[in-house]
Amino acid sequence: MRRSLVDVVGEEHVLTDSRTAGYSVDWTGRYRGLTPAVVRPRDTAQVAAVLALCATAAMPVVPQGGNTGLVGGGVPRSGELVLSLERLDRLGPVDRDATQVTAEAGVTLQRLADAHPDLDFGVAIASRHSATVGGAIATNAGGLRVLRYGPMRAQIRGIETVLSDGTVLSHLSGLVKDNTGYDYPSLLAGSEGTLAVVTKARLRLVPRPRDPVVALLGLPGLADLHSLAVRAVREIPGLVSAEFFTSTGLDVLLRHTDLTPPLSVPTDAYLLLEVSDAGAMEALAELAGDLPAAVASGAAERARLWAYRERHPEAAGFLAPPLKLDVSVPAARWVELATRIGDVVAAVDTGARVITFGHVADGNVHVNIAPGAEADGRHQDAVFGFVADLGGSISAEHGIGALKAAWLPLSRTAAERALFARIRAAFDPAGILNPSVLPR
Amino acid sequence: MRRSLVDVVGEEHVLTDSRTAGYSVDWTGRYRGLTPAVVRPRDTAQVAAVLALCATAAMPVVPQGGNTGLVGGGVPRSGELVLSLERLDRLGPVDRDATQVTAEAGVTLQRLADAHPDLDFGVAIASRHSATVGGAIATNAGGLRVLRYGPMRAQIRGIETVLSDGTVLSHLSGLVKDNTGYDYPSLLAGSEGTLAVVTKARLRLVPRPRDPVVALLGLPGLADLHSLAVRAVREIPGLVSAEFFTSTGLDVLLRHTDLTPPLSVPTDAYLLLEVSDAGAMEALAELAGDLPAAVASGAAERARLWAYRERHPEAAGFLAPPLKLDVSVPAARWVELATRIGDVVAAVDTGARVITFGHVADGNVHVNIAPGAEADGRHQDAVFGFVADLGGSISAEHGIGALKAAWLPLSRTAAERALFARIRAAFDPAGILNPSVLPR
Fold it and tell me: FAD-binding PCMH-type domain spans which residues (chains A, B) (predicted)?
């Protein structure tokens, strides 16, 4: 089989030596495995040929993009071959009238954001300098602007994908409206590499706001914060982001980084709002009232305020090797989640430190835990069980992967999981695509 | 079987007499058939029981909502049983914080729009007083505001659905972010009743604009109109709608209705823009420049301007029993489509009158034809072939149904159609759901 793979992609792109190591461990370092080979095709035809060979040999395959996933879904865990899409990195010309661009799977999200001075890419995630189009589609990446632009699924205007038998499906002309049968690109978004390999996507770009404004508001607690965020969504049409963090995470950052206190008065809860243009300033000021606040309109000042939120993923890591959970609940249960989650974790691990932050308007809370006791699943049991009782999801953004596989039944019924397995077989009858994740 | 159905829904809701007639013909009158029975369940459990009976008896079923479809996809064409969802008409309380509501399949879109004074439903289509949630999901309805809020697919925050074997899948808690396996609700949107029967949906509502403004601009031609629409999308963040029609349709309406000329000077092409608040007026005025224009901010005046666009679907009917086609193309090909479509139809039917109108920013043109010669498929051959050559879709909004089944290969490859059939079998192994539409 090695010989056949070399015939397709060339000797130097079938890695079987120590260079496979970086492809075999996820960036958290928690998930690692062995792979017989890392194969790096250059184009769609090569992807199709590699998959056809694997299907014939019944060789399981893990597709891999920027390898920035957080749930162990993109690395070989049971001896899978790694199909790296990194060399599919061509970015087409921006179609300014359509506000669209065609990108190969290995293009990073940051390159999309930089593709045109007047246009931006709607999805912004912390890992955007490494995360790629293919991986972001496979995980339906969300991030800081879902409120305004939706997740990765909502950016797809066309897709080219390869089924596990090597069949290429190409539908890339960039139609905004197209009701001609099943919208399988929507299904590929979030399918964690189990249905097909994305090789190209036609993606929506969005007008770049001319005068965005960022405000950081201090609030006495999370209930007040949630009320204000809900009002902001309703009353500020130009709202792009509504993010939160608390004094717990901020205090850690102030101790361990060069950040200085953002407001003159410390408060318990912090709400960061970004609006797309200065025209929304009035509504913003009315909303903020007498709250302690910092407002920024220049790029450097905006970045300075954003840093308080964007550096929160680092915080728990200053205390212990962190456990990064990512959940969402209905709006009506958000305050309960955000205020009680610390106690829920303390009940199973009194020494744990819990840092929460995230996307308040989406019901999404990142629960980062610096465990005091061994991370043997008890933290997940506690957090996911609590979230399920609130009608929530055990994965808002990150996916199920390896980290959450055992808890999927908390979010999906047996009937849903059985349907998932049938859908999967419809796309991948050979059963070779990312067999370690999602039901089969 | 009749006895068993009566046991489930009651004698008065298994129709087998002349009352089946209204359910057996679509509202265009073009598609009709015979049905052994119309069954009208009252709740999800009854839907499940009816489907289980049909699966056992291998009885094909057509799910039917408001029966406002335009492609013959919701009526029995080969002796199917009609499963009417009209009695599932309960609308839950509006969750104002989440800006969501749960609606049963038979609730009309207008009831969603009227559910709360501060909130609106994002999808507005001409048939909104009759069209229902279930049908609008099954067809992924688009309409007048896709530009701003997306189609029906983008409104779904949860769904309850019944598979053909009677299995109920319920996922209704209203999560904005939920990456826990395959997003099958996205796939149900646009599936034309072939995958599952939607019984309830949790739907996004949107803030109702406080001071919307409508402007009708007159332009010398469709190329200028398209340029201006593209600029509007880029430069007016509060843009909700960008619609167009031409003097051809307007002249027919002025002759056959009580409408009077909208502008002091007649022009060839008309662009209707709606912006969500008066704050966008300045950008609108800059855009309009010296063009002939009418601007409306009061509700009655807005409705008066909208009427010119909203009455266009009637226009071709004043000339002959119309053929209503609905296509979309990439932005770069829109002008070519809009300016050449008349000649394309004339080439196969010199006596035809062609009226175009629609959603310019979505690439979507409604091509309404008052044929001069027999409607034997030649008009579709010409229009759909032309659209396919432009990289377009033979169905932007209406779906494939019966009307376009023969031309689906123009928009979807054999490999895609084969995938459709496999997806379909994964949802409906018994093969009883709406067998006359989409590939099996």
Answer: 31-208
